[in-house]
Specification:
Blueprint: H1 2-5, H2 9-12, E1 21-24, H3 32-44, E2 51-55, H4 66-74, E3 78-83, H5 86-93, E4 97-99, H6 107-114, E5 118-123, E6 131-133, H7 141-147, E7 152-157, E8 169-171, E9 177-180, H8 195-205, E10 213-216, H9 220-227, E11 236-242, H10 244-251, E12 267-272, H11 276-282, E13 288-290, H12 293-296, H13 299-303, E14 308-313, E15 316-318, E16 323-324, E17 327-328, E18 331-332, H14 339-348, E19 353-357, E20 361-363, E21 369-371, E22 373-374, E23 392-395, E24 398-401, H15 407-416, H16 420-432
Parallel strand pairs: 1-2, 1-5, 2-3, 3-4, 5-7, 7-9, 10-11, 10-14, 11-12, 12-13, 14-19, 15-22, 19-23
Antiparallel strand pairs: 6-8, 15-16, 17-18, 20-21, 23-24
Helix pairs in contact: 3-4, 6-7, 8-9, 9-10, 15-16
């Protein structure tokens, strides 16, 4: 069966037909060779009116070539970003791509209602039973496929993709076509922690109880939190993403999962992004289970664990607690991802806490320092987390607890964690807005 379905990327791309909705995996599930072959067909006019969903592209393909993109769009095709990494962000700014607002938990059900015709993703080599693993990246596409039985599945087999436990496998009989393309997995660079990272990390870490179930997002702040958790006991993992700092905590004896209620002693996640050390840790490790985002990010499932601690980032917060986390004004910067999923899940959890962290200031291209805590979000701002849902806001100046408190109390708390240079201005504006007397 394997040999009968093995072909070149160009041959496999012929299974995509005019008018199809096609989804691609993210990061290391991005099937670069298949994506390039499909992109060439769209640019040549051989494929028309195709809608292609992508997310966090790790490698440039024909769909990242401006000259080809002009032709792709001229032939009625669309490329949509489910989440914007650096490549998607650039082409969103240029008007070549469009963004699809969604929560990661909702993605598979969303495609079930819209209809998915085909998917392309990277898998590990086939085992002796005929199964392929989506390894470190089942993310949302595995869920898309399971919600759309009968869709075309094009698999790019990569010997570097580790096999992972969990619900993330395809049998050879399910696949439409297979190509082979061995490429080392893309690794996430690490950067030194700043003084601000360290302070924010300490503020959050001191609020993490023994036995907590962690969700860590991407970036320096979650890494800083992990650095200050080494004195904790029996932490568990139920997280959209796995990162290297979790391996550090496991090796220090901090993560055992012994107190988890849902799948005790198991690490549960929908994707991993880090170094080869992390990927090697996941490979054939029965303690780590990779599932699609509909399972991992389901707020009900998250809330089944006690003391869920969710740590994510935001870009701007107003004095009522509205958070713009995935866009700057009307410019798409990243994506909503699972931020709301885990905020809601943490709220359902007994003893749960959801933290949104940000630096108190940023610097413009002209060197002007501005506050990230503002009286009101800027015009055309896209709200990710509403004031009804936000729980804790953390800066290098402390923690503001907002949920359950009125607008006056929220404004006072947020002004206390704003940069000192902007506190008088924020107080003045809060009075103008009627939050303070």
């Amino acid at each position: 069966m394997y040999k009968s379905k093995l072909m070149s990327a160009e041959e496999a791309a012929k299974f995509i037909k005019d008018g199809m909705l096609v989804a691609s995996g993210a990061i290391n599930a991005q099937a670069a060779a298949l994506q390039s072959a499909i992109g060439l067909r769209m640019a040549s006019g051989d494929l028309k009116n195709v809608r292609f969903l992508c997310s966090l592209s790790a490698r440039p393909t024909t769909m990242h070539n401006p000259e080809l993109l002009e032709k792709i769009i001229a032939n009625g095709n669309m490329i949509d970003a489910m989440y914007a990494g650096p490549l998607e962000r650039y082409f969103l700014d240029q008007g070549f791509y469009s963004y699809v607002p969604h929560r990661l938990f909702d993605g598979p059900m969303m495609t079930a209602r819209v209809g998915l015709d085909a998917a392309v993703m990277v898998v590990s080599p086939m085992d002796r039973h005929g199964f392929f693993s989506t390894g470190v990246n089942p993310d949302y596409v595995y869920g898309f496929i399971r919600r759309n039985p009968g869709c075309v599945i094009l698999a790019e087999v990569n010997k570097y993709m580790p096999r992972a436990y969990g619900n993330n496998h395809f049998h050879i009989s399910e696949l439409t076509a297979i190509i082979e393309n061995d490429q080392p997995l893309v690794e996430l660079p690490t950067f030194p922690l700043t003084e601000k990272d360290e302070l924010i990390g300490q503020y959050i870490a001191e609020r993490v109880p023994d036995g907590a179930c962690l969700q860590l997002g991407i970036g320096n702040i979650p890494n800083a939190v992990a650095k200050y958790l080494t004195n904790k006991k029996d932490l568990g993992i139920h997280s959209e993403m796995l990162c290297d700092s979790m391996v550090d905590l496991y090796e220090a004896g901090v993560i055992t999962g012994a107190r988890k209620k849902l799948m005790p002693r198991k690490w549960v996640a929908s994707f991993a992004f880090g170094t080869k050390r992390l990927y090697d840790f996941i490979a054939d490790n029965p303690m780590v289970e990779m599932h699609d985002s509909e399972f991992v990010n389901d707020p009900y499932n998250i809330g089944l664990n006690d003391n869920v601690v969710s740590i994510n980032s935001t870009l701007e917060v107003d004095l009522t607690g509205q958070c713009a986390s995935d866009a700057i004004g009307n410019r798409q910067y990243s994506g909503a991802g699972g931020q709301m999923d885990f905020i809601e899940g943490a709220w359902r959890s007994k003893g749960g806490q959801a933290f949104l962290a940000l630096y108190s200031t940023y610097e413009t291209k002209d060197g002007e320092v501005r506050s990230r805590i503002v009286p009101s979000l800027q015009a055309n701002a896209m709200i990710t987390t509403t004031r009804n849902d936000v729980q804790y806001i953390v800066t290098e100046y402390g923690v503001a607890w907002l949920k359950g408190f009125n607008l006056k109390q929220r404004a006072e708390s947020l002004i206390k964690v704003a940069h000192p240079d902007f506190r008088d201005w924020l107080t003045f504006e809060a009075r103008k807005l009627g939050y303070l007397r």
